[in-house]
What we know:
Elements: H1 5-8, E1 21-26, H2 30-41, E2 46-49, H3 58-61, H4 82-87, H5 97-110, E3 117-118, E4 123-129, E5 134-139, E6 144-152, E7 174-177, E8 193-197, H6 201-210, E9 216-221, E10 227-229, H7 237-245, H8 247-256, H9 277-290, H10 306-323, H11 327-333, E11 346-348, H12 351-354, E12 360-364, E13 370-374, E14 377-380, E15 384-386, E16 389-392, H13 400-404, E17 407-409, H14 416-419, E18 438-440, H15 453-473, E19 476-481, H16 483-498, H17 529-541, E20 547-551, H18 552-559
Helix pairs in contact: 2-15, 15-17
Amino acid sequence: MTDTINDLNPSASVRPKNADFDVIIVGAGFSGMYMLHKVRSLGLSVRAFERGSGVGGTWYWNSYPGARVDTHSIVYSYGFDDELQQEWEWSETYAAQPELLRYANHVADRYDLRRDIQFDTTVTAAAFDDEAGIWRITLDSGKTVSARYYIMASGILSVPKKIDVPGLDSFRGELYFTNNWPKDRDVELAGKRVGVVGTGSSGIQVVQTIASTVDELFVFQRTPNFAVPMRNAPTDPERAAAVKANYPAFRAATRQKSDGQFADHFPINESIYSVTPEQREAEFERRWAVGGFNILSTFNDLFSDPAANEYLCEFFRRKIRETVHDPRTADLLTPHGHTIGSRRLMVEMGYYEAFNRDNVHLVDLRSEAITEVTPNGLATEKNQYDLDVLIFATGFDGETGPLLAVDITGTGGVSLREKWSGFPKSYLGVATSGFPNMFIMVGPGSPAVLTNVIVTLEYHAEWIANLISYMETNGIDRVDAKADEEDRWAAFVISEADKTIFPKDTGSGWIGANIPGKPRYIKVYVGGLHSYITIADGVAARGYEEFTQVTTESIAAARK
Ligand code: NAP
């Protein structure tokens, strides 16, 4: 289904021949790298711009002690090339950051990606030129480049949350941020007095890793989170061989699942109320013993029924009490007031045990809030903590943050920042109306945040590449998500979320609550990956009817 040029933009008059590149991609993390590879396979010219000095995105920046993926590496890896997945050996069930970064570099080398990536370059603005029908991209050098297609692959967690504590510059010790850990030197923490602010996934990984090497460790916790044991282990060669023998089937199975996780998980499609209390606890125990996200798929109503979720919360609370010796510390580490899964479940390796050490001290910021950073350490309402090293593990302006960090304007000069000042409407999380030929990897409205993101980003890259290929084959110059289709998708995202516990957690970063002033909406499609793929495949099969499409012919006709 195509529309005339006038439906999309009456002033447009030429098919863009004058762009520097066919495609410009922002970011060379796992999304951007695969998108680049896909676009090249279409025979298009492409340039990716990357803020860092190397590939890897998240795994480039977050090189803090203990950084490690919380998804099984055998599925937290690309599945698009059987040779790649056969030749790569993961050393552990859950790979640590250095190994993940080696993998990203291996992929970049193997497919010679670097020749089309410009590193140390930040894209600051992107504007659609209605007249020429191309995107004009501004770089931090002040230079502009242009392209027919503009793809944001800037990640979900790439803009650090601003530290809102006064006095940061006055600190005379060593100051670090987990999301921008030094890359040019080793950070020596042994024998020092160290403070860690933040107890999300990054904070707990730092704490459990450095507890035994530092002299004294002060953990500044505002909100305790739920954490499940990881039970990481060296790769079992027999297991790895079995997976490799069936890798395509494993990959296909991940796309059939709602979370895109390891196909070996054992979901039970039963209500928590269909089993006895003894069976319920036994099932929780079985999954606790296996470790990782398995426990989230124990029953099918854990995310729709708060009372069902509360059984799991109580199970976790009991485990904390059993592990942490000091009852007061155990109590402070025990989450109340939010559900499991409405914030990312943390996957730990000895986090709770760390608090049984004499040199580890939990500081409860709910009873003594941080007032300022001082030259010697951190001051709270009640105490001064003298520190040699202060580490902030305070998170990110997630999901929309990286997209809105670039000043993007679409048709008629409409600003994305303005358009998304309320609910960030997108179509399928990959496009947004009024921004023709702009595509988003893992944007708001995608299921990515609740899934194994590698599986979802591979699907997005393939879907976007297929749409571009369709355009090239059919002489279509511009596509733009139809506003009414986008409205329908936004309403669907909201109504699906309303059936679950997710929007009810008013403190969750997933609704933007961690960033002061950020509009609070659940921005993820909670219906799951498999359901999403079914919908998005249908859109492609029907010829992308949900997009306004403008052909070369209609442009020629408009010219006459
Ligand atoms: P996060 O989950 O947003 O946690 C930030 C922590 O900092 C929270 O404990 C927060 O407390 C605290 N905080 C923020 N501002 C503060 C302030 N001014 N004073 C005191 N405390 C403050 O960030 P993250 O741990 O970096 O994780 C971000 C995302 O990355 C998560 O989705 C996570 O799952 C993912 N991640 C995954 C892995 C993995 O795969 N293993 C590892 C790391 C991160 P409040 O909760 O009270 O705001």
